Amino acid sequence: MEVGFLGLGIMGKAMATNLLRHGFKVTVWNRTLSKCEELVQYGASVGETPATVVKKCKYTIAMLSDPSAALSVVFDKDGVLDHINGKGYIDMSTVDADTSSKISEAIKEKGGYFLEAPVSGSKKPAEDGQLVILAAGDKALYDEALPAFDILGKKSFFLGDVGNGAKMKLVVNMIMGSVMNAFSEGLTLAERSGLSPATLLDVLDLGAISNGMFKLKGPTMLQNSYSPAFPLKHQQKDMRLALALGDENAVSMPIAAAANEAFKKARSMGLGDHDFSAVHETYKAPHHSS
Ligand SMILES: NC(=O)C1=CN([C@@H]2O[C@H](COP(=O)(O)OP(=O)(O)OC[C@H]3O[C@@H](n4cnc5c(N)ncnc54)[C@H](OP(=O)(O)O)[C@@H]3O)[C@@H](O)[C@H]2O)C=CC1
Ligand SMILES: O=CCCC(=O)O
């Protein structure tokens, strides 16, 4: 089946490659078109614009950085809306429910079908087809896309109306970002108080709060190595959007707010394109013992 794929960043490249490896015909587009070349080596075709991709394919998947990118690809000149009549559009980017609803309404008005489907899981799960897919919107399009979701992910959820996928994803990443900050504080506290942070990792791994993120990120954080799997600027975007969701629902979120400040500080230190675990650096400010 011919599917479109818009956005070949860390996630999009891995996901589109996976679809190609599993026999899908994929037409790709990326804002920086040169990034399509690697996918062509795996058998992809290239569309010159989002509109040409949508025109050619039964449905098109998007994996873009943030709300502004998601809106631009749909609404700008030569965008998705131009040829969406009768076609499906699946936005897997992490955005807020409002952005997703705007896109959904515009696509439906033009006779198209829309599904939001943000994902849990990062670069490696994307490469291994082990993502968790949080879909909402058009159920018929969800059913049609299941063969692709089965390749991209280990589990797909259908969460009902548009917005529920976006909200679920933001809640998950709000928790993840807060935990990453507590973890960074703990590593710094262990080191400053004379403990071995490597031993702390072993102790954590044997207890009730053992988790995949500590196991994966802990060793590289101890080496001050932050090669981006999940860029910090995107984690900060997710904290910001989750805090806005908290505002809308009058939910007090002091821990998430503090975590957001740390991610903002990390961005101001030039760490936005590093992995989100680089927030650890904000806890290493010069130390003055009394
Ligand atoms: N990395 C991860 O671990 C995960 C990321 N996510 C989410 O997935 C999405 C993509 O993440 P990731 O692949 O890491 O991000 P990257 O920064 O690696 O890629 C972003 C993509 O968006 C494109 N883009 C950015 N701005 C625009 C624009 N204005 N118009 C058109 N295209 C644009 C980029 O194009 P160009 O190449 O031209 O810059 C690139 O293809 C984000 O929403 C992120 O929050 C979700 C789960 C995990
Ligand atoms: O949005 C990014 C999520 C990263 C992860 O789930 O490991």
From TrEMBL:
- The protein depicted here goes by the name 2-hydroxy-3-oxopropionate reductase
- Catalysed reaction per UniProt? glycolate + NADP(+) = glyoxylate + NADPH + H(+); 4-hydroxybutanoate + NADP(+) = succinate semialdehyde + NADPH + H(+)
Give the matching InterPro entries.
3-OH-isobutyrate_DH-rel_CS, 6-PGluconate_DH-like_C_sf, 6PGD_dom2, 6PGDH_NADP-bd, HIBADH-like_NADP-bd, HIBADH-related, HIBADH-related_NP60_sf, NAD(P)-bd_dom_sf
Q: What is the species of this protein? A: Vigna unguiculata (Cowpea)
Function of the protein: Catalyzes the NADPH-dependent reduction of glyoxylate to glycolate as well as succinic semialdehyde (SSA) to gamma-hydroxybutyrate in vitro. May function in redox homeostasis and play a role in oxidative stress tolerance by detoxifying glyoxylate and SSA generated in glycolate metabolism and GABA metabolism, respectively.
Q: Which residues form the active site?
A: 169
Please provide, alphabetically and separated by semicolons, the GO molecular function terms listed in this UniProt record: glyoxylate reductase (NADPH) activity; NAD binding; NADP binding
Instruction: List each copy of the 3-hydroxyisobutyrate dehydrogenase-like NAD-binding domain by range.
Output: 163-281
Top-level taxon of the source organism: Eukaryota
Question: One Gene Ontology cellular component annotation?
Answer: cytosol
Identify the keywords attached in UniProt to this record, alphabetized. NAD, NADP, Oxidoreductase, Stress response
Give the stretches traversing the membrane. Answer: none
